[in-house]
């Protein structure tokens, strides 16, 4: 099975997925890291991990459809089976959604449907809730919507700073995302 990972920034989930799943010696290869941001640290991680990477963004194209058509062309050329979003900060449009129906997974740092959007950790922290968490879900046309695969809670202790909460959330992400992707790989790219 061939995987592509899409990311826009730091890439800690990308690294956790690649290192964890490579150790497990599954029938899977990481065939593409696609990044829409030229300065993203994830590009350096991809080079260090030997994952082929490309970087381009919608502004390099006439419109979003043309941008996604180029992504799709490359996904097909590389014979990608499953797309893993790991901090990809864009809405996936109909061009990719239709071609990869139920084959694009996302991770979000809150207990959806609470705190969707770009700042899931901070929004939960500032709202003063006692519990937040991590959600892994298939994507659809909405913002952080789509069928939920798994959620895990993270308690916010009164003494937690935002930075501590971020570390707690990321630790959960780095553990559960490889687990879920492993299950999907073993199941031929589908959910059970
Ligand atoms: C993660 O918190 C993920 O849930 C969200 O974006 C963040 C990406 O972090 N979608 P990283 O780039 O994997 O370090």
Summarize the structure.
(6R)-10-formyltetrahydrofolate binds at residues 64, 89-92, 106. The active site is at 108 (proton donor). Helix content is 39%, strand content 21%.
Folded structure, characterized:
- With about 190 residues, the chain is of the alpha/beta class.
- The chain has one domain (about 1-185): Formyl transferase, N-terminal domain (Rossmann fold).
- About 40% of the residues lie in helices and about 20% in strands.
- It has 6 helices and 7 strands; from the N terminus they run E-H-E-H-E-H-E-H-E-H-E-E-H.
- The chain has a 7-stranded mixed β-sheet with strand order 3-2-1-4-5-6-7.
- Helix 1 (about 10-25) links the parallel strand 1 (about 1-5) and strand 2.
- Helix 1 (about 10-25) runs parallel beside helix 2 and helix 1 crosses helix 6.
- The radius of gyration is 16 Å and the shape is globular.
- It starts with a strand and ends in a 6-residue tail after the last helix.
- The model has no long low-confidence stretch (mean pLDDT about 95).
- Bound molecules: 5-O-phosphono-beta-D-ribofuranosylamine (GRF).
- 5-O-phosphono-beta-D-ribofuranosylamine (GRF) binds near residues 7 and 9.
- Pathway: Purine metabolism; IMP biosynthesis via de novo pathway; N(2)-formyl-N(1)-(5-phospho-D-ribosyl)glycinamide from N(1)-(5-phospho-D-ribosyl)glycinamide (10-formyl THF route): step 1/1.
- GO terms for molecular function: phosphoribosylglycinamide formyltransferase activity.
- It catalyses: N(1)-(5-phospho-beta-D-ribosyl)glycinamide + (6R)-10-formyltetrahydrofolate = N(2)-formyl-N(1)-(5-phospho-beta-D-ribosyl)glycinamide + (6S)-5,6,7,8-tetrahydrofolate + H(+).
- Pfam families: Formyl_trans_N.
- One of its GO terms (cellular component) is cytosol.
């Amino acid at each position: 099975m061939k995987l592509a990972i899409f990311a826009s920034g730091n890439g800690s989930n990308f690294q956790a997925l690649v290192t964890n799943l490579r150790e497990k010696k599954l029938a899977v290869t990481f065939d593409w890291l696609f990044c829409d941001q030229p300065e993203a640290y994830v590009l350096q991680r991809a080079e260090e991990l030997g994952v082929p990477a490309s970087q381009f963004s919608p502004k390099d194209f006439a419109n979003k459809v043309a941008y996604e058509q180029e992504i799709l062309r490359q996904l097909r050329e590389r014979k990608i089976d499953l797309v893993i979003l790991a901090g990809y900060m864009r809405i996936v449009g109909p061009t990719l959604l239709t071609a990869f129906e139920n084959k694009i997974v996302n991770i979000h740092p809150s207990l959806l449907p609470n705190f969707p959007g770009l700042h899931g950790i901070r929004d939960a922290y500032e709202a003063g809730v006692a519990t937040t968490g991590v959600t892994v879900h298939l994507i659809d046309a909405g913002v952080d919507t789509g069928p939920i695969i798994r959620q895990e809670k993270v308690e916010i202790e009164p003494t937690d700073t935002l930075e501590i909460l971020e570390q707690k959330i990321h630790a959960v992400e780095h553990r559960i995302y490889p687990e879920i992707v492993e299950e999907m790989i073993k199941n031929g790219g589908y959910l059970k």
